[in-house]
Mitochondrial protein (Corynascus novoguineensis), 357 residues
Amino acid sequence: MSAPAARNRKKSSKRVEKKKTSAAAAAVAPPAAAPDMSKLSPSLKALINAPFARPGQAPAPRHIRDVYTRIAHEARERKYGQRPWVTLSAAATFTLNSPASLLALHELVPSLTDGALPPLTAAELIREIGLKCISFNGIPRTINCLGAFRAGLLESSSSGVTAEDLARRSASRAVTSDNATAVADRGRALWRSVYTPFDEKLVSKLADSHPDLPVHILGSHYGPLLSDPPALPVNSENNGGAGGHPPPPAAVVGRTLTSVVAIACLRAQTGVGPQVLSHVFGLRKGVEQGAHRDECAAAAASAGSAGLEAGSEAEGIERLAADEGCEWLLRSVDAIAEAVGASYAQWEGEVAEKAKL
């Protein structure tokens, strides 16, 4: 065998031996430790909470009370009623993710409504508005805002609301085998009320986008959430399908106030002009159908709401649905958005500045 061939054979033998050694080592080596999924790296935590991502809630601007007070005074001057201005203010504030501003609003409502909405009724109305905001803003903001709102009410000795007050409420919107058909029918009726005469055509158009889109909108929103359970005696076995304790009538966000919630949420979130337009027409259709009159009468008759007058409230909603009223509604939402948005920008800037120090 020539010298070069011998050297090549020797090298090949070494490579084979090295592979065998590596394989043997791998066979006896312990497996690599799995990463600890219960902990996050500092860099990942920092990225989640980066100021530019606005991870927190907006603080209450210093002048937010002035903004709400001006809206309330304008509503009185224009005779739009008590609950509509509270509804648009709360819905816009939920959308802007500012529970601190919601607490300021709650503190003002009893005096700005001349006692028509006392502290507990005002709190329940704001909570009901927040619940319906889910359909327009998504779940997370409502979860966070309602949680912070409740905590703030209970922390304040001047809120006029106790944990015992809030504990009297229980779920009233559960869907069961006994009421599923009624809830579905209720949702369809609300859908027709808002979108007639295009309700069926719109369902088909939504299904073209995704076959389950109208199924989810009607079955998860218009039925169990945006429409209201029938008003039955407290603790009635069929109340809401689950024997729940509903809000007082003055805190029920009925057909026309639900349209006000929709307009305020969609206007404040921006970028959804077609939906704002649809719900402006939805508000007008609710007035045309007379839904507001029975709702205002029930609110006025409820205990603790002596300052609400059914006739004036109903006439106020009718004025609100007209051109001038809708313009005022939109501009009022814009004023809240401008106030809270400016505060948000300033707050994020302050956080960024502190991070540099």
Observations:
- The two ends are 76 Å apart (CA to CA).
- The CA atoms of residues 174 and 242 lie 6 Å apart.
- Residues 59-169+249-356 form one domain.
- DSSP finds 17 helices and no strands in the chain.
